[in-house]
Amino acid sequence: MEIPAIQGLKVESSLMPLEKPSQLGERQQRLRIGVPSESGNAERRVALSPYAAALLVSTGHEVRIEAGAGAEAQFKDSEYADAGCDVVDSAAQVYGESDLIAKVFPPRADELDLMRERQVLISALHLGGLEAETLRRLMDLKVTGIGFEFIADSDGTLPIVRMMHEISGSMAVQTAARLLESSEGGRGVMLGGISGVPPATVVILGAGVIGEWAARTAIGFGAHTIVLDTDLTALRAIEHVLDRRVTTAMANPTYVESAVKTADVVIGAAMSMGQRSPVVVTEEMVATMRPGSVVVDLVIDQGGCVETSRPTTPSDPTFVCHGVVHHCLPNLPSAVARTGTFALSNALTPYLLDIGEAGSINDALWSNVSLRTGAYVYRRHLTKKSLAAMFNMPHRDIELLIASGI
């Protein structure tokens, strides 16, 4: 079994210490965790790696995983079976025999049909493509829905989102470097240039986690890197972290227009926690970019921060608008599915263990502020003000709902 912290080293499972199943405490709940395949979502990751599944099984929980769910991340069904999981033939079995569903993508309509009343769902929500009907279906089923985008630690950081954003930021620059090649319809320039030839200019919209990791990677390529944000504190922080190897500027319309016009690559990383991402680059600005320039909109799952962006798929990842190549995959970390699965598992597993230890989802939500912050539907109620405003729906405070026993 492979340990995520040392992916490059092979360790024979026979040489690894095996965890001894612990006795279930008085408050601990034996969770029946279901992990469906994400293949219908054009997604290569899976919610749990075999190593994470083994940890959950060793603490007394059951894990059911759909056959082939880990194939695109190079995890065999036999690895999950060796970890103690029940490998089942269909998604219907996963949903029908589980109390908690752990997913990467939000459930599709056909998956909602498979869900049972009062199940717990932990997955991404993808605010940019979310429909009110999905929320209504979950509420009708009295599901407790917990979204990756909302799970926050006490210091305000988003641990699951951060993991994915680190990958996205790095992957965006790798992707842009390839799309700039002549064979891909790009300008035919190298990000780092060579002796006597200046480097490409990479403009990053947003100085958060995505922006930081995109800037790190762009600098590593040797590109001229500019980061724009409306938060001066965030700009100071990224300058400090990157030793002033990055140029920063306030993201007012004048600076944005000027930077985008001369950019070889624009990376969209501007987002607002739990809300639709703001549109920073207008279609008029895109129209001023040079033919063959590249836009990689990393927040398309939150609606996108470039006006001309629209979601694309792994089978058709790009389109051209105003001569500019656009890459707008909602699940860019899926391109490195194995790394992405390990990263997601590392962040998600502690929350699953906390739910089991608490004894019930109610107790877990009450005692764990991160899970409580992550909840967006609870029983028949919407619990996020931002979603209520987005869809003009009523909402209730989750703490009051739990305390009242509704």
TrEMBL record:
Gene Ontology terms describing biological process: L-alanine catabolic process
Family matches, as CDD domains: L-AlaDH
Enzyme class, broadest EC rank: oxidoreductase
GO terms for cellular component: plasma membrane
EC numbers on record: 1.4.1.1
Stored InterPro entries: Ala_DH, AlaDH/PNT_N, AlaDH/PNT_NAD(H)-bd, NAD(P)-bd_dom_sf
Entry keyword annotation includes Isomerase: no
Boundaries of every Alanine dehydrogenase/pyridine nucleotide transhydrogenase N-terminal domain copy: 34-168
Signal sequence coordinates: none
Keyword Amino-acid biosynthesis on entry: no
Alanine dehydrogenase/pyridine nucleotide transhydrogenase NAD(H)-binding domain location: 180-328
GO-annotated molecular function: alanine dehydrogenase activity
Record keywords, A-Z: Oxidoreductase
Gene3D superfamilies: NAD(P)-binding Rossmann-like Domain
Family under the similarity heading: Belongs to the AlaDH/PNT family.
PANTHER family found in the cross-reference section: ALANINE DEHYDROGENASE
Protein name (record): alanine dehydrogenase
